[in-house]
Design a protein that fits this description.
This protein is an alpha/beta fold and about 210 residues long. It contains eight helices and six strands. The protein has helices spanning about 15-30, 55-65, 85-95, 105-110, 120-125, 140-150, 170-180, 190-200, and strands at about 5-10, 35-40, 70, 100-105, 125-130, 160. The chain is globular, with a radius of gyration of 17 Å. Bound molecules: NADP nicotinamide-adenine-dinucleotide phosphate. NADP nicotinamide-adenine-dinucleotide phosphate binds near residues 11, 21, 39 and 108.
Length: about 210
C-alpha cells in the first residue's frame, strides 16, 4: 500500500509555492509520491482566462522533472465537462484500490471544501492534508478541521500541517509577466523558457484576477 499525495490545482502557471507545498507535505506525512493533477474546466473560474489544460499540464511536467517523487496526471484535462474533485478521487480509488490518498490543499480549500460538489464523496476516498500558511491561524484551521470531521463522520483525521508563509500566487506571476517584470526564482527556469517561447500571459485578458488569488 502506497501513501500518495494528490496535488490538484489550476496551475496557471505552476510556481514555487505549489512545488514547495507538495514537497513539504510529502516530507511531513512520509508520502511515497505526490501526483500533480491540473484541473480541467472549472465551474468556479472563467475558462477564458485560463490557458488550455494541455499547456498547464506541460508546464507542470517541466516543473517537476527533477523530483523523482513527483508525477503529473492528465485525468482531469482529458475528462469531458466540468472538473469535480470527487470524480477524480473516485477514479483514483477505482484505479488504485490498494493505495491511500492524501488530498493536499492550502488553507483556502479547507474552508471552501464543504461547498464543493459532493464533499462526502471526496472525504470517503482520501484524507485531507491542509497546509497553514500564516494568513489563517492554526487554531482556526483546527476548528474547521473538527467541524468537517464531525459533519462528515470521517474515519481518518484531517491533517493540518504548518507550512511557510509564501505570498507567491499564479495571479502575481501573470501580472509580473504582463508588466515585463522578472519571474526568475518564482517559477522554475524550464517553465519560464516555455512561457517566453509561447508568449503566454502577455495579453491583459490572460491576467485577469482569479476569483480567489491563487
Ligand atoms: P491553484 O490555485 O493552482 O492552487 C493549488 C493549491 O496550491 C491550492 O491548494 C492552493 O492553496 C495552494 N497554493 C497556491 N499558492 C500557494 C502558496 N503560495 N503557498 C501555499 N499554498 C499555495 O488551484 P485551485 O484552483 O485552488 O484548485 C485546487 C484544487 O481544488 C484543484 O484540484 C481543484 O480541482 C479543486 N477544486 C475542486 C472543486 C470541486 O470539486 N467542486 C472546487 C474548487 C476547487 P489554497 O487552498 O490556499 O488556495
Amino acid at each position: 500500500m502506497r501513501r500518495i499525495g494528490i496535488m490538484g490545482g489550476t496551475f496557471n502557471p505552476v510556481h514555487v509555492g505549489h512545488l514547495m507545498l507538495a514537497e513539504w507535505v510529502r516530507d511531513a506525512l512520509k508520502l511515497d509520491e505526490v501526483w500533480f493533477i491540473p484541473t480541467g474546466s472549472s465551474y468556479m473560474k472563467d475558462s477564458r482566462d485560463i490557458l488550455p489544460g494541455r499547456e498547464r499540464l506541460h508546464m507542470v511536467e517541466l516543473a517537476i522533472q527533477d523530483n523523482p517523487f513527483f508525477r503529473c496526471l492528465d485525468l482531469e484535462i482529458v475528462r469531458e465537462g466540468r472538473t469535480y474533485s470527487y470524480e477524480t478521487l473516485e477514479q483514483l480509488r477505482a484505479g488504485y484500490p490498494e493505495d491511500m490518498f492524501y488530498f493536499i490543499t492550502g488553507a483556502d480549500c479547507l474552508f471552501a471544501i464543504d461547498s464543493w460538489k459532493n464533499p462526502e464523496r471526496i472525504f470517503s476516498n482520501c484524507t485531507l492534508a491542509a497546509a497553514g500558511r500564516g494568513d489563517v491561524s492554526l487554531e482556526e484551521m483546527g476548528g474547521k478541521k473538527r467541524e468537517l470531521e464531525q459533519k462528515f463522520q470521517m474515519r481518518e483525521e484531517i491533517q493540518v500541517i504548518p507550512f511557510l508563509s509564501l505570498s507567491v500566487s499564479s495571479t502575481l506571476i501573470r501580472r509580473r509577466i504582463l508588466q515585463g517584470q522578472s519571474i526568475r526564482y518564482l517559477v522554475p527556469d524550464r517553465v519560464i523558457s516555455y512561457i517566453e517561447e509561447k508568449g503566454f500571459y502577455r495579453e491583459k485578458n490572460d491576467v485577469k484576477e482569479d476569483q480567489k488569488s491563487s
